[in-house]
Design brief:
By secondary structure, this protein is α+β, with helices and mostly antiparallel strands. The longest helix is centred in the last third of the chain and has 9 residues.
Length: about 110
């Protein structure tokens, strides 16, 4: 839905941090994908909307990186999602109980 707020989940296949040429506004530009395709995602940092600062806070002081699975909340304009939230998902998926025991025995940082 154009201009509607929605959520999408995908894996980051590309991400870049930069500043706009005109005003020097900090931004994150990412491509996320799932098994149905890919989407462009933009996030801007302004005084009124400190989205990148909030992203850092939500993700333990780190920005999302390539390979991370993220949930994006934002508005769609054309072929781009303008994100207010990018939240990294650190969930583990197992298919057998034996994998679950191994996963639970691992330290949290591995």
């Amino acid at each position: 839905e154009e201009d509607g707020v929605f959520r999408v989940v995908g894996e980051i296949t590309e991400i870049k941090k930069g500043k706009s040429k005109l005003k020097g506004t900090p931004y994150l530009k990412a491509t996320i994908s799932d098994n149905s395709g890919s989407s462009k995602v933009m996030m801007f940092q302004t005084e009124r909307s400190p989205n990148i600062d909030n992203c850092l806070e939500d993700n333990g002081g780190k920005l999302p990186k390539e390979g991370d699975v993220i949930v994006v909340r934002g508005k769609k304009k054309g072929d781009c999602v303008f994100a207010e939230v990018m939240s990294v998902q650190n969930l583990v998926s197992v298919t057998r109980f034996s994998q679950l025991k191994k996963t639970l025995d691992k330290p949290a940082d591995s």
